[in-house]
Prior knowledge:
six-stranded antiparallel sheet; SH3 type barrels; 35% helix; alpha+beta
Amino acid sequence: MWFFPVLLLLTVTPTPKASAKTLADFARFNKAVGQEITIVDLDGNVREGVLKSLSSSDLTMQFGSGERTFSRDAIASGERMRDGTVDGAIKGAIFGGVVGLMMAGYDDGSGAAIVLTSVAVYSGIGWAIDASQTHREPLYRGRLPKPALKISWRF
C-alpha cells in the first residue's frame, strides 16, 4: 500500500524553481512571445499585456489596442501569467499508465485497452487540474539598483 502515496507524491510535486543565474537571462522571454505576461519596472509599476516581440535590448508589449516598448534596463522582473499545462497531462499519463497496468493484471481479456483507456482518462484529468491552477511562471529577474538610503541599528 505504500506504492500509491509514493506515486501520488511523484506526480503532484512542483517542478524545480529556476535559479537566479537562469532568471537573469533576458532571452527567456522568447518562451512567451504571443502570450500574456506581466512585468515590473524599476519604479515598481506592474504592467500586464501580450508580449509582441523581443530583442536583446528591449521588448514590446501590447495593451488593448496600443503597443509600448520597454528597455531591458527598465525591467526589474517578468512572469508569464500562466504556466504550461503539458506537464499536468504528462504526470496524469504516467499515473494512468501505472494504474492501468495494475488494473490489467486483474483482467483476463484485453489488458492493452484498459491501459490505453486509463492513460487517456488520467492524462485528461491531469491536464484539467493543471489548467485550473493559475500559477505564474517566472521568466526574468533583473538586477535591482542599490537603495540610496541605508539604515542600520547599533546597540
